[in-house]
Amino acid sequence: MWVAGAARSALKKLVGLPFENYERIKIPNEKKEIKIEIHSVGLLKDDSHALGITFAKSGLDLDITQNLEIWTIASLEKISSNNPVQIIPINIIAGSGVGIKEDTSEICISNFAKEVLHKNLIDNIPDGFNLKLEIIFPNGAFLAERTSNKSFGIVNGLSIIGTSAETYSSASPDQLEEARTNLAKLVQNNFKGEVVFVIGENGLNLAKNYNVNLPIIKIGNWIGPLLVDAAIKKVKTVILFGYHGKLIKLAGGIFHTHNHLADARIEILVYLAVQEKVPHEIIVELSQLDNLEDALLLLERFNKFLADKLFKSLSNTIEKRSFSYVNRYVKTDMEIASVIFDRKRKVRWAGINGNKYISNFQ
After folding, report:
1. Model pTM above 0.90
2. pLDDT at 168 (0 to 100)
3. Which structural domain range is residue 60 located in?
């Protein structure tokens, strides 16, 4: 929403419309508009470009993008007389601090975000021109280091992958209620009994890339309460699809996975390594690491077979601990399956139950 606000203000300045300190941003397929405050706007490069600046105001204390500074630079490109058809009326460019896909170098932006930009900019693009829009997050590269973006193949900055106009912290009760509502709707409509739970937008994006032929619900960090809710709603199977750095917490009995509540990933891996009789000197090295990906790389350098065995044990433990957790609150035989991917977005491991579903993600 804030990117669209800054972009709209910049484009209006470029075509000679007066500056306003806010923009009303239309939401695709909805009648409501969101009022976005604009910090400033100005012309650049002999008035051929315009810069719009705003600050994201999600209102969420746990949102690292709260107060994120956003720049958008708008310029117009005349359509060639040899090619008068406007195939791509808005060319979106990833500037400094904006995430790109590591494998393709394309800007990491969702279809919903593109729709928002198109809906709010297209009417102000003069006939005979395309709009070139460069998006810049001055602090984006620094903030991206505090996310799991690299685990999803997103580098250089923050992604723009929202799927709705609303902003929720993945630790917020609002996120839990939205997921519960989505699950309630799902089980009412020719539901086959199987559902995929993913954590956050990145997991959702990867699941959709695999064209998973199963219903998918984004659950944020509220894994435990939503597993219980699924059991109450008589779901037959929940497939937990996620990054090893998140799902490992379930193996340690942590069922709200936001980092501000608990982070014992290395400790959990060390415990599992002891169970699998990993050599003592390797366990000592593991205990000194800061993140799970470095631990995986260390294990693979030592012995790839042992590393794979340990992470399969992790997958099985996730399933067992999750099943025990749910049965503390409601007696159920609901199957819980785990399918896990690594930092390179490659699906690597599955538990005993997850093995039946892993082919859906490849």
Report:
1. no
2. 46
3. 2-158
